[in-house]
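Figure S7 source data.
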Amino acid sequence: MSSDEVRAIGGEQVPYFRTPEFSAVMLENEKLILKFAKAPSGSKAVFMTNSSTGSMEAVVMNCFTSTDKVLVIDGGSFGHRFVELCEIHEIPHEIIKLNHGQKLTKERLYEYDGQDFTGLLVNIDETSTGVLYDSEMIGEFCKKNGIFYVCDCVSAFLADPFDMAHCGADVMITGSQKVLACPPGVSIIVLAPRAVERVKNAKVKSMYFNLADALKNMERGQTPFTPAVGILRQINARLKEIKKEGGADAEIARVAAQAADFRNKIKDLPFEFVSESPANGVTPLHPINVDAYRIFEILKDEYGIWICPNGGDMKNTVFRVGHIGNLTHEDNTTLVNAIKDMLKRGLILR
Ligand SMILES: *Cc1c(COP(=O)(O)O)cnc(C)c1O
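Tokens for the predicted pyridoxal-5'-phosphate complex:
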């Protein structure tokens, strides 16, 4: 859910954008994103008009080649997306396959120690199962092995603690429609200095996904092609809201409290938690003996409440409740009351 201010901008005319005014908005966006990501000095941000899968693809295309050997953490649909991208772009890779909900232990990761890996791809919150991976522990492993470290923080950015400089991530990806709580359509790639160098020297066979071109344009607060101007203005308002309310740590604490409140309120309901290592952004739940997708449909059609179904092979077994954006503890109560009503009606089984 978006804030009122962000929604109001959605109703305005979209201005022409090759102007000093729009460049100022973009440069302010960059400054705040770098600050909130705790990016090391010399980092750059580029704003891509695509969903975050486009940015995942751009990063794979611009940062790796057939001479790399990349380790991919595959614990759910988003980890698997990185595997597919490596396949499509013919990047040599190996996979650490985790069961749904399973966390990545140090023991498991260090099975791959000292094996000439050059890159690592991970989704810090694997949003399909709500598993939070330890960005610091993985960062140490990457540092030790001289590995180029890519963090998909699409749903973790501003929901879970993440310190790009401290964990040593080279790349961080996020998107407009997760904690930024804006409409979908814009995705952001933060490049630490080592990634900036790598991207500048890349020979990527793509016009739209050429990150060197995006970096060059961003020096003056512009993009190579027409961006989603309206959404970038909404992101600007939202970033300033977050700043005014105490910055990244305050927003992370707010999301964490929203998640804790919900998890506490559903303790006695007949759902199993999916994640061994829960991220703050979302709670995936497994209802016992009931179709998870039906719960999504009934809440939407009969109660006017939107939760999030799962895709792929978790479609009928897992649904997810989000804790990001303009939500309150009151909203949690409304949802829990609806679920209790469904229990009473026999739509959810004990
Ligand atoms: C939402 C999300 C994405 C991107 O999804 P799009 O539909 O392409 O915006 C990527 N990775 C993670 C971890 C996500 O949560």
